[in-house]
Specification:
- This protein has three helices and 23 strands.
- By secondary structure, it is of the alpha+beta class.
- It folds into three domains: 96 residues, conserved putative lor/sdh protein from methanococcus maripaludis s2 fold, CATH 2.40.420; 87 residues, Elongation Factor Tu (Ef-tu), domain 3, CATH 2.40.30; 111 residues.
- Strands 1, 17, 18, 19, 22 and 23 form a six-stranded mixed sheet that branches.
- The chain is elongated and about 170 Å long.
- The N and C termini lie far apart (107 Å).
- 22% of the residues are buried.
Length: 395
Amino acid sequence: MKRPGPRASSAMRLQFPRRSHAARLRHAAFALALTGFVTLAACSKEEAAAPAPRPVVAVALHADGSATSQAASLPGEVQARYSTSLSFRVGGKIIDRRVRLGDVVKNGQIVARLDPADQQKNAASAQAQLEAAQHGLVYAKQQLDRDQAQAKENLIAPAQLEQTTNAYASAAAQRDQAAQQAALSKDQLQYTTLAADHAGVITAEQADTGQNVSAGQAVYNLAWSGDIDVVCDVPESALAALSVGQTANVTLAALPGRKFTARVRELSPAADPQSRTYRAKLTLDNPGPEVRLGMTADVAFAPPSGVAANQNASFTVAATALFHDGTQPAVWVVRPADNSLELRRVTVTRYNERTIVIGQGLKDGERVVLQGVHTVTAGEKVHVIAPLHPEDFAS
């Protein structure tokens, strides 16, 4: 076997150190990369272990109380059950006003008068025409009696008797017409005096002395004595819970500490085109003289007969809080123990324009998320903040 020469041995000695140095470099690079990966992984675990709580807008809800909770407190006004306008039945110039705003009047009491000069002339003219018609009728009757006597003796022709009979009938008709005209003129003269047709109180003045008014133009507004109503406007969300005959408790700002009972007498069948509310009229039971027209009232409707006070408790919340768990409506509830989120299925009993009414699924005092319900997840830690503009979520 041939031994390698000195030149070949020297070459082999030079190659071994080169290979060993490259391996060491590769090993060092791998160790450095592994150290960086472990360091990054450790940082990621650290960050995932303690995420910052997400701020969410949420409010604590309180139960409305009953099916009629949205109508539990409605502002109202005390009004007379009947109110009419007082006006003259003929036109003319007002020369006298005998009552003023707030005066109490009796049935038949004179409240104002017109200048009667023109009506007096018309009445005098009609009376003169009546007297002339009566004289004509007397003359026609005398002529008829004379011709009838002559006709029995065959002293006049039958045609002449017919003409006399016709003249008498015409005179009688003219007398009747004149009598009716005279009576009308007399009534119109009486119409220049305005009298109250019921006992009550003057609630408005709409014409002044010296003013020319036309027939039917309102001069006063009269609120009748007797039954007193409280009028309030009911939102359509509370309409279904009200009915005619339902009782309510009424308090008046002018009479603190006093409570009155009222019953729903009338409920408008159509909504007001502007406010979209329904007018309800309630009659007060035994109001007393201290209750005066125009007082502001607070109407609290009692629940319908047989309904417990805590039955059908509901919660009114902004519509932005509504979420869905599959096909079921739900809301995000903040757990009080750890401020984590829970998706709670609820029963929505009514959808309004800006709010929803939840009938089941919530408890009084629970906090519900109002904004960003599509960006949170179950179990997520949150930090509750109040709405920046609470009026945007008001019911």
